[in-house]
């Protein structure tokens, strides 16, 4: 049985790429202390938002289109915080900041959903998703890993 995707690996990979100079970052439009990198993952645009301490990535939230949910575009979210910076609210902060930047960037477009699929064993991440995304949850068996997971999804307006 394989493991569920761990966004901590994305944070580490992002950090390595940042240090080698192979990433271009833009400052957030709403929050100048948030940085954005847009690339493609499996042919889909990926929006990655980070908080930095110097050149060190302390928190990361990544959003990738994942079809439609209830007739609206759906973005799968993953988030991670560098271990030394955990338990300081940074996961909630970067997830909220990323969603705010997306809402601003998608202004005038239809509403969209953000979803997070989290292992039932990941209490810290479940707490973040419950607070930031809230709403109705669905518990299911993750197809890739076969593990029990909880899906959080929330609709966000774009101020059309």
TrEMBL record:
Annotated CDD domains: NAT_SF (cd04301)
InterPro entries hit by this protein: Acyl_CoA_acyltransferase, GNAT_dom
Pfam families, per database record: Acetyltransf_1 (PF00583)
Listed PROSITE patterns: GNAT
Keywords from the named record: Transferase
Molecular function per GO: acyltransferase activity, transferring groups other than amino-acyl groups
Residue intervals of the N-acetyltransferase domain: 9-157
Tree of life domain: Bacteria
Listed name of the protein: GNAT family N-acetyltransferase
């Amino acid at each position: 049985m394989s493991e569920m995707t761990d966004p901590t690996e994305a944070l580490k990979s992002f950090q390595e790429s940042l240090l080698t100079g192979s990433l271009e970052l833009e400052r957030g439009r709403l929050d100048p202390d948030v940085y954005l990198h847009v690339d493609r993952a499996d042919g889909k645009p990926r929006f990655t938002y980070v908080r930095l301490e110097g050149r060190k990535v302390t928190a990361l939230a990544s959003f990738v289109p994942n079809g439609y949910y209830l007739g609206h575009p759906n973005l799968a979210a993953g988030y991670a915080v560098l271990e030394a910076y955990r338990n300081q609210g940074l996961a909630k902060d970067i997830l909220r900041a990323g969603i705010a930047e997306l809402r601003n960037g998608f202004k005038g477009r239809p509403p969209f959903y953000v979803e997070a699929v989290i292992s039932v064993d990941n209490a810290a991440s479940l707490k973040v998703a419950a607070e930031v995304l809230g709403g109705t949850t669905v518990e299911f068996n993750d197809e890739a890993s076969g593990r029990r997971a909880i899906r959080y999804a929330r609709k966000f307006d774009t101020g059309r």
